[in-house]
Task: inverse folding
């Protein structure tokens, strides 16, 4: 039975149920993706009120998101009772099979596949799985003590359990008592899986690293992860073409780099060269959506001694950052690119000359004439002053003042 979605819960642009509602300065709320696409197309008005947007910032509407989640929760229980394939009794049976620990491998695999199907086909019903403790139990299957932890069959169960848990993660409390709070045994399993697990397991664990980093109640576990150069090495190693998990690796490294204490270790593991290589090929293989994340990560790492020189010495370092200053498709990453260039060019004419050769001047003019943020425009003016200083110094060398 299709649910009748209240008008308040629909995006005015797509008319679909809001999943990531954000509010503009006009007070109107939209789906983030839809309004970002509207603004990226060159529109500077609110689609509903047609008022000119004096401020392009978007504020997450958490209150509306909670109302929608509660509405979905209420409708989920009602609709599951009417479902012949996935009713409450069936889901309870799934849980019993997973909890028993004595079920045959094939039966457990089938249940995990059905749970995954339930997550995908009935996203509005995730709250029922959460209420019945599936998220915590799936993590229990991943991090449990087992004599056959590294067996092929166990890796298959871990892979499927993590896949299901990742689908439930946005609706779950990762810091619950049975979630991922500080436990040394869980950390050891975490590290082991990064070292010995399949690429699918590593890819999924990278997403959990993101969640751990940004959750206020998992900071103890985050500290354990941060204090492990071996783990950070495993994550950074995913940032290469053949890894099969390059995007997940980038997102995890970006999350880890948000804290100053992690940056030296990330740099020591070779992340700067890998990220710069990625940025140099941003126009290839439809990878532009992650370019702003990579640019922000490089900006973070530039606070570490020696990184500035790494960028300058990289064959495509300066050029890659210059190309991020202004992108026609969107302006994400512009401010990070400008700030990075300000750091790199702060005390030497060599990177300034490289930036000019690679076309920074027209990029800066485009920023100043576009709908880029005020912060980006301020940084563009600061960079122009730096370049002007270089030209003044060169003029003095060529035409010294006679005293």
Result:
């Amino acid at each position: 039975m299709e649910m009748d979605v209240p008008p308040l819960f629909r995006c005015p642009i797509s008319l679909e149920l809001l999943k990531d509602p954000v509010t503009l300065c006009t007070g109107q709320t939209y789906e983030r993706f839809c309004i970002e696409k509207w603004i990226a197309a060159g529109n500077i008005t609110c689609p509903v009120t047609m008022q000119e947007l004096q401020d392009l910032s978007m504020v997450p509407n958490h209150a509306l998101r909670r109302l929608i989640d509660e509405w979905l929760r209420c409708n989920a229980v009602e609709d599951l009772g009417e479902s012949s394939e996935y009713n409450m009794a069936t889901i309870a049976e799934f849980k019993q099979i997973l909890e028993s620990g004595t079920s045959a491998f094939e039966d457990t695999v089938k249940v995990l596949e059905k749970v995954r199907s339930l997550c995908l086909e009935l996203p509005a019903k995730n709250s029922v799985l959460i209420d019945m403790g599936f998220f915590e139990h799936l993590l229990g299957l991943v991090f449990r003590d087992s004599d056959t932890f590294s067996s092929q069959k166990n890796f298959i169960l871990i892979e499927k359990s993590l896949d299901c848990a990742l689908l439930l993660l946005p609706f779950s409390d990762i810091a619950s008592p049975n979630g991922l709070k500080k436990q040394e045994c869980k950390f050891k399993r975490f590290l082991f899986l990064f070292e010995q697990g399949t690429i699918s397991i590593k890819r999924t664990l990278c997403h959990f690293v993101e969640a751990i980093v940004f959750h206020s109640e998992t900071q103890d576990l985050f500290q354990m992860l941060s204090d492990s150069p071996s783990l950070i090495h495993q994550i950074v190693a995913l940032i290469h073409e053949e890894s099969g998990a390059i995007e997940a690796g980038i997102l995890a490294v970006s999350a880890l780099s948000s804290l100053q204490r992690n940056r030296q270790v990330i740099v020591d593991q070779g992340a700067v060269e890998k990220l710069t290589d990625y940025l140099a090929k941003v126009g290839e293989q439809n990878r532009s959506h992650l370019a702003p994340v990579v640019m922000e990560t490089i900006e973070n790492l530039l606070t570490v001694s020696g990184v500035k020189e790494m960028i300058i010495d990289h064959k495509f370092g300066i050029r890659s950052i210059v190309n991020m200053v202004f992108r026609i498709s969107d302006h994400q990453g512009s401010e990070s690119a400008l700030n990075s260039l300000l750091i790199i060019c702060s005390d030497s004419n060599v990177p300034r000359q490289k930036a000019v050769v690679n076309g920074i001047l027209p990029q800066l003019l485009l920023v100043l004439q576009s709908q880029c943020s005020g912060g980006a425009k301020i940084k563009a003016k600061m960079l122009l002053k730096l370049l002007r200083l270089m030209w003044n110094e060169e003029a003095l060398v060529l035409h010294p003042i006679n005293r």
Notes: The beta strands are 21-23, 29-31, 59-60.
